[in-house]
Every structure is written in structure tokens, then in C-alpha cells.
Structures
1.
Amino acid sequence: MSQKKPKLGQNFLTDPSARQRIVEALGDISTSTVLEIGPGRGALTDLLAKRARYLIAVELDRALAPRLKETWKHAEHVAILHADILGLDLATVQSKSGSSGNDPLVVVGNLPYYITSDILLHLFAQAASITRAVVMVQEEVADRLAAHCGTSAYGLLSATAQMHGRVEKLFPLPPEAFTPSPSVTSAVVRLEMRPRFEELAVDRTGFLRFLQQCFRQKRKTLANNLKNARIAETAEILAAMEEAGLSAAVRAEAVSLESMGLIFQRLNV
Ligand code: SAM
């Protein structure tokens, strides 16, 4: 029987021990401003409100947001925003936190599947405002985020995430932990935001675009992907790869971020 996709990716977490483990994965948040993405019916919100110095929860659903506002109306350290996370500027959120206004945020959320990648990219783009994020995603996405270079799960998402910080897959969550149950297993990942653009001496926008070109066709070699993207002449591409100690036949998934950085600098793209 085909299952209807839940509206706004609403699979609500109902397993109490999973709630606890997700919140514990944030570490000590007693002095932090926490941003919760998609609080829904509040599965994590209670626990977060008990532990965080300040909690900002962003919910898009027009029925759930007012309910949450009503529940938390007397709590001075809890703010519910009825908004789309993708339209939210995190620096503005920081300034609403009632603190000095520039403490980096701790982010948490059981992310709606239909926009997981968009939310992750939105968080990466604002990594300077975030110290740590603990998010639940589809297990397959968690595996790609945390994959080591040289393994088959390693790809553009892994490289992009790992340019922004350290990624750790923490634990899986079975479909039965949610109502309604999704059709796939989920997993919780922790991202310690520590962007590497300065360390590798690459411009963020240019390097992220370059990575997209490197991974454009998974089956092709790195050299062919770069050639097809007209990044440079073939001879130049091969020379840059050789300087980085790479063979001409290597695929992007086997190339470390450090080597990617060297090729990027050498080709001056
Ligand atoms: N945190 C709750 C839980 O664990 O039970 C709900 C998780 S559910 C997977 C995702 C939540 O994100 C839903 O409440 C949904 O309405 C909300 N949501 C979906 N799209 C959103 C968006 N663009 N901005 C903010 N919240 C969104």
C-alpha cells in the first residue's frame, strides 16, 4: 500500500529515549542559545527549554506555530517564530537571543526530509553563526555527510559538509520511533562547525563551485569532469593533479580536500 507523504515532512518523534539522546548529543547547553528547527508538536522542545539558556524554535506550520506560542507564552527564555527556516538569517536570530547578541548558536532539529539538503546548505552558508548542530536526517544522508574520502558514499555532500566542519554519525533511529512512520531509517548526526576555507587558502564561493564541477559525474575521472566543465586545458589540469601527487585516472571521491585545494589554487579558477 502506498503511503501518503506527510505534509511539511511531519514525522513526529514519539520515542522518549530517542528524544533524550538527541538533546544529550548537544552537550552542555546551559549557557547557549539554541535554535530548534521544526519543533512540530514539541518532542524536543520541552527538554531543550529545561536545559538551554535561551531557546528559539522556528516552525513553518500555521496550526502548530500558534499552539507552541500558546504553550510557551509565559517562558521568558523561549521564543517561537512562525517562519520558514530557509528564509531566516541566523545573525538576526542571534541578535534576538536576549544575550550580547553574538554568541554562536547551537542548532538542533529533526529535519523535514523534503528539504534536508536545502536546510543543510543554509546552515553551512551561515556556519559563522553556529557552533554545533545535531540534526536527524535520513540514514543514507547521514552516511554521505560523514563518509570518509575514498569510500563509495563520499561525494559532493560529504566534501561540502566537511569543508564546514567535523561530521559524526551518532546513532540510527528506526521508522517506528516516529508517527507517522517514514519509509526509511533515520540517523542523528553532529556537526562541529569549523570551516576550513582559510586553512586551505581557498575562496569559499569559488571552491564550492569547483567541488560541484569535480563531482559532476560520479563515474567519470576528476580530470574528465574538470575538462568537461572547461575549467582549463587538459594539460594544465593534469599538471595540477600531478603536482598534488594524483594519478590522471583518479576519481573525485578518492581525492582529499587538501589535494582539491591544491588543484584549485594551481588552476586559479
Ligand atoms: N521536532 C518535531 C519532532 O521531532 O517530532 C517535528 C519533526 S518533523 C520531522 C519536521 C518539522 O519541521 C515539522 O514540524 C514541520 O512542520 C517543520 N517544518 C517543515 N518545513 C519547515 C520549514 N521550512 N521551516 C521550519 N519548519 C519546517
2.
Amino acid sequence: MKHLPNYRALFLQHLAQTSPAPLLLEIERAEGVYLYDTQGKRYIDLISGIAVSNVGHSHPAIVQAICEQARKHLHTMVYGEYVQAPQVAFAQALVNTLPPSLNTVYFTNSGAEAVEGAMKLAKRYTGRFEIIAARNAYHGSTQGALSLQSQETYKRAFRPLLPFVNYINIESQSDLEKITSQTAAVIIEPIRAECGVQIPGQEWMKQLRKRCTETGALLIFDEIQTGMGRTGTWWALEHYHTTPDILLSAKSLGGGLPLGAFIAPQEIMRTLSHDPILGHITTFGGHPLSCAAGLAALHIIKDALPEVEQKGQLLEKLLGHNPHIKEIRRKGLMMAVDVGSWEILQEVIRHALHNGVIVDWFLFNNHSIRIAPPLTITEAEIEMAAQILNESINRAFND
Ligand code: PLP
């Protein structure tokens, strides 16, 4: 018999760890909404690898686009010098999903890099240095993005971080006064994901836009989780009829390959190319493989989009019958299911995993189940997943 290396032990030995308790699933292959481990066990992925696999895993059209591009060329030059067809075609398709003013794309490798680029762009364009972020939001783990996080727990060990960062509470009328003519940018997630899908009202969003326009502060929407169809529209901004000055995307943008972007009007973006030149540069940002995959993903999402809200409603209805659930917060297929406590939540996750459904917790919410399945999930798969999840919730409460 062929002797396989003990990858689990080697993972713990040779790969840097981010927590003392990694999930340690050993995935061999993935297809559609399913992950398969090395023992052949099948799991329904209800979290899309944390809001990445909006088109499911290894979609044939994405694999084909990657192979075709790989046969043509891989990396040829750092970002912004050569005309690379996959980048251009994807940028054009992407801006066509957005309000007309958001017409210029700067591709990055990740979400945090898009955040960094956007903060630099706002400083450069406005000549100001204060950034205002929302409390309990998450924008990434690099030093600039981490500076935007309000929780001291995650920041203390890494100080000093960026100065001149202030915070507002979402939906606070009085906090809007903190935005002044000193403010370079206000960055928010239109729906805050990591505090458990918190959905603000339309009116406050309108007032936020108004205040930014009045003070000359740029409004940045971090749509890294909410974008690319997740909430039932291309972008969450559509729910608010509000256009930011800069929009951020990543995670699902590359159809499963690493890709991020900050997107802004050309007049704003242009300032990164002079005084100084090379105001923001990257070697791999907008990699041709990622852009080819992203374009293929965009077409798949376009087809899936009309049914996203309906599928979300079905999942909400199937879980909504469960008397143990305290609250469900949802937009499209972005959902948080409140089960009341950290202990119960951990039990639900454990039982669900045992029974072949992957759900998770949120960074800043210790009592809600994270649910964000691929947008391509079928109604039959939703029914199957909901049944296992309901059983897992019932077991967690009855144990
Ligand atoms: N912004 C939001 C809303 C996110 O959820 C994340 C990652 O979870 C980021 C930014 C950072 O993205 P990345 O992990 O690709 O750096």
C-alpha cells in the first residue's frame, strides 16, 4: 500500500498557525457546494471559504478560463505597465456592474491591499490625513487596515499603528458630526459582516453620503464580503441607492483565485500616477490568471443573481421554524443566525461538521452562526443543508 505523508502533523510542524485550534479538515477536492476530505467524506460548504466561492468550487468555466490563460501567459510585468487583455476585459466588465462614476479599477492581490490602496488614494486626493472607520468593522490584517479596527484586543500587541484614525457608530446621528473638513475618508462596510451581518437603514446611509459630500471627505465602501452578488444585487450599495467615491472588492472577485481591487472615478485615481509617480505599485496585483478567472466568475454570477434573494428567503424560512433561534439577519445569501451563546454556537458548528455541513462563527459576534453559501447552491441543496443545520441546533440545545 502506498504510504501517504501525515499532512496533518506536517501542517502543524511547518505551517505558521493563526490560532491554537485550527479546523484541520484535510480537503482533497471540491466541486460546486461540496468539499471532500481525504477520507472521502462530503461536506456542504455553507460559508464559501469565508465569502470567496460565490460561484461554488472549481466551476468548470473558471477552470477552463484559467487553463486557457495559462497556455497564453502567466506574469509578464508588474501592474500598470503592459496592456494585459485579461485585466482590461475584466476591468471593463466590472465597471459595467457599477454606477458610472466608479469607472477606474486598480487591481490588488487581496482585500487588505485594496484597503491600503484606498486609504493612500484618499490621502493623496484630499491632502488630508484623518480616516474615520465604523466601530466593529473588519477591513484586514495589515497595519493600515488593522488601524481601522476599533477592538483593542486585536491591535494592542501591534502598536504603534496609524495615527489620526477615529471611529463612528453606524446609525448614530451625532457621530456624523465627527466627519469634518479634516477628514480624508470615511470607510464602512455597507453591511458589517464580522459583527454578525448588521444591516443599517437607508436613511442614515443617505445622511452619511451627504455629510461626506459637504465636508469633502471621500466615502469608501468596503464591499469585500458584500460584493459580487452576495446580497442579491451586484453590490450592497444598490440597496442604499448610494454611490461611494471608492469601492473595495476582493474575496469572491477572483472566482477562487487571489484578487482584490479598489475602484474610483478616473479623476481621483489619476492622482496616484504623479507627484510622486508610482504612488501605489504592486508586482502581482491583477494577475492574468486571477483576472481571467474573475471574468468567468462574473458571467456565472450574472446568471445566478436573479435567484439569490429567493434562495436566501428559502433558507431563512427553513431555519425560521426552529424555536431555538433567537434572530436571523439576512440580505440575499449573507446570513447570521443567532443561537444565544458562544457555547451553543460551538456545539452547533461541531454537530453540523460531523453531519457534513460547514458553518462558522464571526470575528466580533460570539453567538451567531455564519452562513454564506455559494450563490449557485440549488434549492434541494438548501433543503438538505437546512435539515442538517436544524438537527445540529436542536442537538446543541438538548445535549
Ligand atoms: N474587508 C472585509 C470586509 C473583509 O471581510 C476582509 C477579510 O475578511 C478584508 C477586508 C481583508 O481581506 P483579505 O483577507 O483578502 O486581506
